[in-house]
Structure formats: structure tokens, C-alpha cells
Amino acid sequence: MRFLIDENIFPNITSYLRSLGHDVKSIQEEGLFRITDDKIVHMAKDEDRTIITFDKHFGNVIKYPPSDTAGIIHIRIHPPLLHDVITAIGNLLKKYESPTFSGKLIVLSKNGYRIR
What we know:
alpha/beta
């Protein structure tokens, strides 16, 4: 899968996804600090990448309709402990049956996920 990692995501998560063989682009690594959410969505669309973020604004399905994206994974794990986040992402990737997250908003929690 192809992911775009928002700047608020731990670099270890980027490394973890790459270790699983995914194509991952990181806003931090690209030096695009303080890029707007709209620009992130456009970049992800242009490159067919699923956004992974802690940013609750991406959960606004009116402003960012999932059907217009290659998918959004909104992580809602509090506190956002690295181990819990990596475990939740790993479980999502193991359990999700489709080969893509395109057009979906996945809200990821410590105990599972829901799809909108």
C-alpha cells in the first residue's frame, strides 16, 4: 500500500510501515512542516496515497469526503503511546480484507477500528 504520513505521526511508524514493505512518504522527511490539511489531501490524491494522521480535522467527512481520497486513517489512541499505535496499525493491516483503503475513513483506536 501507499501511505502519506502526516507530520504529527511518530517517525518510528514510518519505519514500521516501510519494514512491512509499504511505499511510505512522510511530510516530516519531505521538510513540509506546517503544510495545510488541504495541501496534504491534494498531495495524497495526486500520488494515490492513504493519509495516516492524528489530526481530527481529517475526520470531518464534509470537508474531506473519504470518497474523494485514497483513504484516511485517523488514529484516535489516547494517550498516543508508540507501542499501542504500532500494534493498532499492525492489527488493522492484518484484519482489513480489501487491498486498498481508497474512499474510506478508518478511525483507528487501541481496541480496533471502524470504517466510515
